[in-house]
């Protein structure tokens, strides 16, 4: 097996471990699945159970359990389809949006501390490679994720970026 692929597998396993560890133990922190679902609704707007399941790669019963718990916690609300469809949709409540933004700001502060010794060009290249890696995963699975306006976009650096 390719040593570089072995290394990527190992490092992505650690990356997932570290990103989870930074949120554990803080009662104010959102669970990873809650954070992800709120982030998707923030980017895309109200969505049905089926749309959320498709976007997140989860079955409807799992999404139904998650959304029920999030509604109980006051993070989500059910609304009529703004486009006039029959299915009801979910959107984040004001408290859900506030908690999402607070968690995101904390994550950015945490990353800023970790990357403080990196050259700004290295941070930009790392971000572009992460975006490229994620968009390739999304393309492979057929589930693209919306990006914020002004994201790094791999096209800024092209496929020939070398570290």
Strand content: under 5%
Shape: globular
- Rounded radius of gyration (Å): 18 Å
Number of helices: 6
Instruction: Enumerate the strands of the largest sheet in spatial order, edge to edge or round the barrel.
Output: 1-2
Strand element count: 2
Global mean pLDDT? 87
The helix-and-strand class reads mainly alpha
Level of helix content?
55-70%
Which sheet architecture does the biggest sheet show?
2 strands, antiparallel
Helix and strand sequence = HHHHEEHH
Residue windows where pLDDT falls under 50 for at least 5 positions: 154-163
- Distance, first to last CA: 23 Å
Main features:
163 residues, mainly alpha, two-stranded antiparallel ribbon, 5% strand, disordered C terminus
Map the helices and strands.
Blueprint: H1 3-21, H2 32-44, H3 49-56, H4 60-72, E1 76-79, E2 89-92, H5 94-114, H6 120-141
Antiparallel strand pairs: 1-2
Helix pairs in contact: 2-5, 3-4
What can you see in these coordinates?
With 163 residues, this protein is mainly alpha-helical. A two-stranded antiparallel sheet has the order 1-2. The protein is globular. The two termini are 23 Å apart. The C terminus is likely disordered.
Question: What's this, in brief?
Answer:
It contains six helices and two strands; from the N terminus they run H-H-H-H-E-E-H-H. It has 163 residues and is mainly α. A two-stranded antiparallel sheet has the order 1-2.
């Amino acid at each position: 097996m390719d040593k570089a692929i072995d290394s990527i597998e190992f490092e992505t396993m650690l990356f997932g471990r570290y990103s989870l560890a930074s949120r554990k133990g803080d009662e104010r922190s959102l669970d990873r699945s809650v954070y992800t679902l709120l982030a998707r609704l923030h980017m895309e707007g109200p969505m049905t159970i089926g749309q959320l399941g498709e976007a997140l790669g989860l079955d409807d019963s799992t999404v139904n359990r998650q959304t029920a718990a999030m509604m109980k916690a006051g993070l989500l609300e059910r609304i009529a389809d703004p486009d006039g469809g029959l299915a009801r949709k979910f959107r984040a409540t004001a408290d859900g949006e506030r908690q999402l933004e607070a968690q995101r700001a904390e994550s950015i502060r945490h990353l800023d501390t970790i990357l403080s010794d990196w050259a700004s060009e290295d941070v930009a290249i790392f971000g572009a490679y992460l975006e490229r890696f994620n968009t390739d995963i999304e393309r492979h699975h057929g589930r693209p994720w919306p990006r914020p306006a002004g994201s790094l976009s791999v096209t800024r650096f092209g496929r020939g970026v070398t570290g």
